[in-house]
Design brief:
β1, α1 and β2 form a beta-alpha-beta unit. It contains 9 helices and 10 strands. A 7-stranded mixed beta sheet has the order 1-2-8-5-10-4-3. A 3-stranded antiparallel beta sheet has the order 7-6-9, with no helix packed on it. By secondary structure, the protein is of the alpha+beta class. The protein is globular and about 65 Å long. Fe (ii) ion binds next to loops.
Length: 294
Amino acid sequence: MTGLLTLAADTSVEEILAAIEKDGAVIVEDLMSPMLADQIHEETKAYIDATPQGKGFTGEHTTRTGALAVRSAGARELILNPCVLAGVRAFLAPYCQQIQLHLTQVIRIRPGQQKQVLHRDRQAWGEILPPSIEPQLNTIWALTDFTHENGATQVIPGSHRWDYAREARPEEACSAEMRRGSVLIYSGSVVHGGGANVSAADRSGINITYSLGWLRQEENQFLSCPPELAKDMEPELQELLGYTMGSVACGYFSEPKPAGVARELCAPEYALDRAPRPGQGINIVEEIEQISTG
Ligand SMILES: O=C(O)CCC(=O)C(=O)O
Ligand SMILES: [Fe+2]
């Protein structure tokens, strides 16, 4: 078993990406302060306590609680973490002009939960995307310590380069053990899964994932965070939610207003009563206008 690299919070984005390139995953320690972890715990607790346990892949002794962009100011801070975002933007840059938020979810693995089936998160889109395209980069932030006993994520280092047909042997898996406040960053292609919790306490992690702006999001952010809630958020977060053009011609809309008043070919930002920020998507829509008006 080869362990994952654990890097300090002040490690450069280049070094973090080099580790992901090598193993498919890396741990960065202490990127979330204990105060921020406490805040997120407080803000999400009532929702988590009201969440029923899952079944099958989602886990009979596991709860999954989403819509974190709406429910938790602390989670919004994590979504916008500058180190992670710089890494995500660089990692996905070869495949897109715009990145987006793909999923926000507190995953609480309770005592008695068995190991999750090993998988690649990119299987959200089936196995249609060619392996040469990396569709996403993912994080799991530790809200509790992650230990081998309490269900730390199981990762197979190097498996992001494997053929899909190759199955992992149990001894190839390593536990992403990390203390509270640390983050596991892993590609959509690396084989992994939640660990078994044989301890007496919950293991909680915040799964925040990012994907190419031209793909469908796993968590529908327009429904989890509709315009009336998104409109008071930071512009960068609004854009990550999807309120900006996702690619050359992905995302414009016609206003749901009466004929004569409704505008056509609107950039998504107009749903939030603002124009796109300079250099952000607007040219794409203007180009479409030119094409459609001849
Ligand atoms: O909770 C974990 O450690 C991993 C969960 C996971 O990989 C998933 O649900 O896709
Ligand atoms: Fe996963």
